[in-house]
Amino acid sequence: LQKWVLREISNFEYLMQLNTIAGRTYNDLSQYPVFPWILRDYVSETLDLTNPTVFRDLSKPIGVANERHARDVKEKYESFEDPTGTVDKFHYGTHYSNAAGVMHYLIRTEPFTTLHIQLQSGRFDCSDRQFHSVPAAWQARMENPVDVKELIPEFFYFPEFLENQNGFDLGCLQLSNEKVGDVVLPRWARSREDFIYQHRKALESEYVSAHLHEWIDLIFGYKQRGPAAVEALNVFYYCTYEGAVDLDAIADETQRKALEGIISNFGQTPCQL
């Protein structure tokens, strides 16, 4: 932390270290490193990193990055009641980081392509649900309070995942009938490399350096659970939290298997730091 505060390490490096300390690793899709969406401008011709309005509000969970969703998310939490008393109230029934989400972003790159196909019972998921465009992915966060996927580190260093190098047949979009191939980039990016370069520059910008700790509090810190999480509209399904379920205490094999499945596929909140 001291190194980061003194700016001896980059924002990227600091996030990677936090992920590692919190038990996230490239070797486990259900606990893959999690990175924030940092921009909200994917339509301008040029990206002006001196303008604070091009950035997402890092103090809010991605599920309420669009102010309009806050009321519904709050209502859902307040009106939820589990008659059995096992399931605690939650704001989101999905998670910001899970195995399917990692495969979703990396669908054009092996071994994730094959893993995605296995997950979808032997074929590619329907084209409209695939990751086909960066601007459209952000739009989905704005319009759909259920889609709360954050990003993965590859968005800041790996241009190849945006290219359909292997020529996979990913089908066509229903509305426009356009073929899904390479990922569609924001207007301000001249190429995949340029997108990664500008996106990384945005991550290291003055604005993000000043606000990154707000997002870190939500994902790794004190706003991850308890009253602070409730207030921040940042509570997820109970199974996603470390120590929420004692699997060894469940004698029924089937029930235990089902819970293990939920935990590994549903998403896991990082260990609280």
TrEMBL record:
GO terms for biological process: intracellular protein localization. It comes from the Eukaryota. GO terms for molecular function: protein kinase binding. GO terms for cellular component: cytosol; membrane. Residues 1-273 form the BEACH domain. Pfam families: Beach. Gene3D superfamilies: BEACH domain (1.10.1540.10). This is NBEL2 protein. It comes from Alca torda (Razorbill).
